[in-house]
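Hey Z.,

So I finally got round to the pyridoxal-5'-phosphate thing we talked about over coffee. Here's the setup:
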Amino acid sequence: MAANESLNHDEAPVLEALERYHEADELAFTPPGHKQARGADPRVTKVLGEAVFYGDVLASGGLDDRLSRQHILERAQQLMADAVHAEHTFFSTCGSSLSVKAAMLTVTSPHRRLLVGRDAHKSVIAGLILSGVEPVWVSPAWDPERHLAHPPTAESFEEAFEAHPDADGALVTSPTPYGSAADLNGIADVCHRRGKPLIVDEAWGAHLPFHDKLPTWAMDAGADICVTSVHKMGSGLEQGSVFHLQGDLIDPASLASRADLLGTTSPSVLLYAGLDGWRRQMVQHGERLLGDALQLAARTRAAIGDIEGLHVDDAEDYCGPGRAADLDPLPVVIDISALGTTGYRAADWLRTRHHLDMHLFDHRRLSAQLTYADDESTVGRLIDALRDLSAHSADLADVPGVDVPTPADLRMEQASLPRDAYFAHLEDVPVEEAAGRVAAEMITPYPPGIPVVLPGERLTEPVLNYLRSGVRAGMNLPDAADSSLTTVRVSA
Ligand SMILES: Cc1ncc(COP(=O)(O)O)c(C=O)c1O
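And the result:
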């Protein structure tokens, strides 16, 4: 059902325009140079199929005419906005990594301040580096027992605004990749009492507007901008992201301009089509699909919880005063510490032995991301493989330990702006000599992509020990100049 009566959710403007393009036998003397697969190497089409190339047409001057007079993208974006209770929606073909930067650069500008939860994704840190914005870090709600960060509480944002009333707005990540969700109503309230906008990095929450048993959706909570990756929890293609806007604190034209600044001039129509078709699917079938997925997740969680040595983290573990406000049960986070191994070792074993790719893994957890695309057969394979993992735990126990610091030891002093440290003269120093120096790079365990170190932070021994022991145990640090962490890049 459309909230706006003039919109019809049976339509999928991008997909329909693509059909018309083919029916009309449009002949392109434009990019893409494969010209509807004709120029594609048969060895490529053998793997990818020709359909990928048929859908890959020029957006403006191909799918739509050179002045976009059919308003194809505009109508698809309006339908998406209507579906998720936003006033404006923008499609992005560069992932939420672009969308979140566009949102930040609209809310604030160089030399100004933004409140940011310290559990932000590395794309947010990239936004700080590019913009020269000063982050006012807001501490996540740490669970010291599980060594896990939940989104910062509304009280933490309140305190941060009290200390820095000049901050232009706030950015919170919710849900986290572990599924824990913030009190978005409370945080939006804290911002709006001061007339400041709230950005929600909801990369993991594309599905939230379509079922009322899921955590609150940012637009419903009154956030001003939210960013979602439709390829994560929805069925868009990789890199398909949308950002949504409401209220009068942000000018839509400024947001569009920032996105234009960062984006490509050759957006993928395939990605647009994926976003457009997913919106129609969700409006028409989302409640049923997600309802079924939630039931499947409940059964799967119970079955995994019955396996010896495995504990499935649930709302009781994550939610409550001073912790998360809610939990999305679709990321099934499994604590395997009782098996005496690490998530890294277990993930490798599951891939090698069972061809299962787990989503997150850390020193004591694994997670399996479920979506409405899963069914009894896929979770059956998961459960069987996890039973096998439990039965083979003795083979997996010869793992180096990870020296996980206390929450207090994880926090480092922000000695200079991320941008200044990143663009300063650099030096690569042996890790043994790095404590006390100011980092000039991000060092990010991936997944989940939350930097442990970011430019401008003064490095400390406990953090370096954590990362070094992590690398020995199998932690992946893809963005560090030296991923083995023999050296660390610091400001000279
Ligand atoms: C919290 C968060 N924000 C933003 C992003 C970036 O999203 P994308 O991969 O769509 O660029 C990610 C990716 O994992 C993420 O976890």
